[in-house]
Amino acid sequence: MGRQFWIAIAFSLLLGWLPLLHAEPPSAPLLRIETGSHLALITRVSSDRAGRWLLTSSEDKTARLWDAASGDLISVLRPPIGVGSLGALYASALSPDGKLAALGGNSGFTPNSHSLYLFDRASGRLPAKSTVSGLEAPITQLAWSRDSTLIAVGLRQEGLRVFTRTLDFVGSDPEYNEAVYGADFAADGRLVTASPDGGLRLYATADGRLRRIARQRMPGKPYAVAFSPDGSMIAVGYQNLARVDVLSGSDLDLLHSATVAGNGNLGRVVWARDGRVLFAGGTARSHDRFTLYAIPGAGRGSPREIGAFANIIVALAPLRDGVAAVTAEPSWASFDAVGHPLLKVTAQGADFRDTGKDFKLSADGLSVAFPMARGKGGPLLFDGARGELRADSRAELPPHSSTAKLSAPRLPEEAHLPLSDWRNSTNPKFGALALPLAPGDVSHSVAVSADRSRFVLGSEWFLRAFDRHGSALWEQRTPGAVWAVNVSDDGRWAVAALGDGTIRWFRMEDGREEMALFVHADRKRWILWTPAGYYDTSPGGEDLIGWHLNRGYNQAADFFSVGRFRDRFYRPDILRHTLRIGDEVEAISLAQSERGEPLATAAGRAAARSSPPPRPGVVSGQGGGAAVAKILPPVIELQSDGLVETTERSVPVRFRLRSPADAPVTEVKVRVNDKLEQTLSENALRGIRGESHEIQVSVPPGDGEIRLYAANRNAKSEAAVVRVRRSAVPGKLPSVRYEKLYSLIVGISQYPGDWALELSDKDARDFHQHMAGQAGKLYGQSISRLLLNQDATRGKILEGLAWLRKSVGEKDAGMLFLAGHGDTVGGAYYFIPGDPGALPAHAGVGGSQEFEDWKAKNAAQRWVSGDEIARTLLGLKGRAAFFIDTCHSGITARPGQSTNPDLTRALNEINEERGVIVFASSAGRELSQESREWGNGAFTKAIIEGIRGKADLRNDGLIRPTLLQAYVTDRVRELTDNKQRPVMFNVGIDDPIAVRSP
Length: 998
What we know:
17 helices, 6-stranded mixed β-sheet, 36% strand, alpha+beta, single chain, Thrombin, subunit H, Immunoglobulin-like
C-alpha cells in the first residue's frame, strides 16, 4: 500500500480527535477598523452558478458577500482571529448553489492546527459542525465541485485535502513541494491543481475517492488553473510568465498559448460562462497600470485590454455575463461579456503610497497634514489640539496653534546620515552596516529627528528606531506597511502613515503606540483612538472602528462598533491629554481627576506603563477590552436570507437573539427604510430568548431595507439587515407621499444679556413658512407648532416633543427644527430653552468655572436634554427629520476660549438606529454663523435656498436628502469662508424630503 493510502487513513483517524487538537482563539476583545469594504489585499473572489453573489476574502481577516448586480455589501463574515497575521484569510470559495461560503487562511491558534470554515451564505452564520480544525498548514486555495458536494483544500505545505460539504474526509495528496494556489473542478468531478513547484496534477473524484490520474511538468511556475465550462480544456496562469497555456482536459497536453508583451505575469485565469473568452491578469502592466485581458476564441485570439488597476490583479471569477476581478488596491470590479466596465468597489480609506514629503507634521506632533491618495484631491489637515479635520490646500495650521509650522520628513541626505538603499528595499544600509529586517520584509520610508540623534525606518511589517550610529533602539509591529513616517521637532513622536489607511503616533522613547487616526474616503468622517479604546470622532464616525469578540474556534465572531459603548469610551478629553502628555495612562488619570472620578493607583499606572508596547489589535491601558466584555449589547442573528427578491407586500424575517445572562433583551425595533415599523416589547420577547422567532414585516412597493435592533440594559445591538429587491412588480409603483407633516419648530434669539442672538427666531419663522408651503405637494397636510423666544419654554418644548410622538403615524412624517443655544454637561447635549431662569442672571460667564458649576447643578432641570430629543425622533412611527442650529454659545467665552458645545455625541446618538435624517449646522465643535447681510444663519439660509429649488440637481422637482446635503454643504462653506461645515446623516433611502417651491 502506498504512502497516500496511509496518510488518508491517518487523517481520517485524526478527525476523530479534533476536539483535542483545536486551540481557542484569544478571548479579549480586539479593536478593528470597519468601513464597509476591504482594508488590505483581497486574496480571492468567487461567485455562485447564477452569478448573483460575489464572495471576497482578504488579509484584513474578513470575508464579504456582495450583490453582484448592484455592488451592495450584503454581509461580513468574521471567523476567529488573533494578533499579527493570525486570522488573515488567504482563500475563499462560494458553493455553486450559493448556499455555503468556504473560508480559510492563517488560523493556527496553536502551531500546525489550522481550520476550514463553512459559513451559511444566507444568514452569515457559522452553523454547528461546520468547521474542520487540525489542518497542518495555512489554507491557500479552496474550490467547490460543480455540484456543490465536494470542497478541495490547498495548503501552504502538506499538499491537498478534499472533503464533502458535510466535512467528511474524502482523500489527500501530500506530495507537493510548494503551496497549492490553483484548484478547479470539472462537471464530471475531475479536479486540477497548480503549484509553483512546477507540477500540474489531475484527479478523479467521481467514485467518492480522490485519485491522481495525471501529472504534468510545466515550463514555468503554475499559479492558477481553470476548467473550460465543458471540461475539455484547462487554462493555466503562471507566477513567472506573461503567458497563458490552454491544455487538454483529459491528458494535459498543450493545445495553444497566449502571451502579452512586457514584464510581469498572467497568473490569474478564468473562463467566461460560455467558454468563448478566457480572462487573464496578474502583475502584467500596460501604460503603467496592471491590466485585465480578454482573450477571444477560447484563448486562441489576441489578448485585448479591458480593465486597468493601480495594483496587481489577485484573483478572477466568472459572472453570469462577464467577469469579476479583485486587486491588492484593495478593490473589486466587474465587466460584462465584451469587457465593458460595470461596477468598481474601492477601499474607503487613505492610500498613503508615494506620500513621501507630503506627509507633514507640526513641531509638537499634535497635528498632521496628508493627502488621501496621490493626485486625488488636496491635502487634509487633522488638528489634534482641537479634534478637527479640514481641507486646507496650503496644509497650514491656524494662528491659534503654538506650533503653526508643518514640516516634511527629514531625509538622510538632508541630515547627512549615511543611510542608503532604504526605499522599497530588502537590504537598507547604514554606511556599510546592513540594517536588520525580518526575512521577506521591505523598507519603504525613513525620517530623521530634528537633532539628528535618531532616525526611524518604516517597512512592510515594522517601524524601527535607530540611533545616530545605526544601532537599533526599538521595533514595533504595525498592522500595515509604513508608507510614510515623520518625527516631530520636539522629538516626542514618530508618526506613521500605514497601509491600512491609519495614521499612528508612536513614542520616540520606546516605540509604544499611543494613538491612531482613521479618515474615511469621503474626507469628512474620522475617528481617533487609543490602544485601550477611548476615542474621539466626527459625527458619523463611530462606525469606522469596533470591537471584534471571538466566541470560540468553531463559531463566528461578534462585532460591535465603538458607538455601542459611547457612554464609557467616547472621551475626547483623554485623547487631547494623550497627545499633549504622550502617555495614555497618565492622560486617563488626568481626565478622571478633572471629572472627579476615582483615580487609578500609582501602582496600577506603573503596571500599565511597564507592560510591553501593544501589538496591532491588542488593547492595553485602563478600560479596554476587559471593560467591553462586561457590558455587551445583544446580538440579532438572522436565520433567513439577508437579500430577498419578492413581489409580496410583506416579508418573513426569522431571527435568533443572544444576550448576556445578566442583561436580557428588553425590546426589538423593526425599521423599514427610515420608519419604525414595529416594536417587540420585553413581554413579547420573554418566550423566545435563545429560540428562533419569525415576524412578518410590511414593506413598501419599491426596493427597501429592513433593519432590526435589539436592546438590553447595556446598549443597542448592531443592526440585522434584510435588503428587499422588487423583481417584476406588476403595475406602476405609487409616488412617494405622506398624509401629514407634523413639525415642531423652535427659534430663540431673546436670551438675556450677552447670550442674545440676532436671527435664530427669524430662522425658525422662515423655515416654518417654507415647510408649510409643502402642504398639498409631498405632504397632504402640514401641521406645525412654532415656538419663539419666551414662548419656547422647557415645558412647551417637552410638550411639543410628546405631541410629535403621539401624532406621527405610519403614513406621516415628523420634523424638529431647533435654533438657539446648546451646551453640554458631562458630555451630554442640552438645548437651552427660552425660560427666564434657563440661564444665570449674570451675563457673559460662558466658559467660566462659575458657569460650569451652575450648569452641573441646573441643566437637567432647566434645559431640554438630547436624550429626550433622540427618544422622540427614534420613536416616531413615520419618517423623522431633525434640523439643528445651536452652536452659538462661543460668543460668551473669555478671549481665546471657545465654549461652543460638542454636538458630536448628541448627533451620533440620534443617528444610532439610522432612523432619522439629521441636518446639523456645523461639525461637532465648530461655531455656527449668522449675519444680517444674509438675513438668516448660514445654515438656515442654505436650507431654504435648497428647498426653493437650488438643491433640485436632477431637475425633477424633488428635493432629496443627499442633494440637499450637497447644496447646503457647498453653500455654507461659501458663505462662511470654509469656517463652518454642515453635517448630514441619511439612512441610505433617499426618498424626497420636499418638493421644489418658488
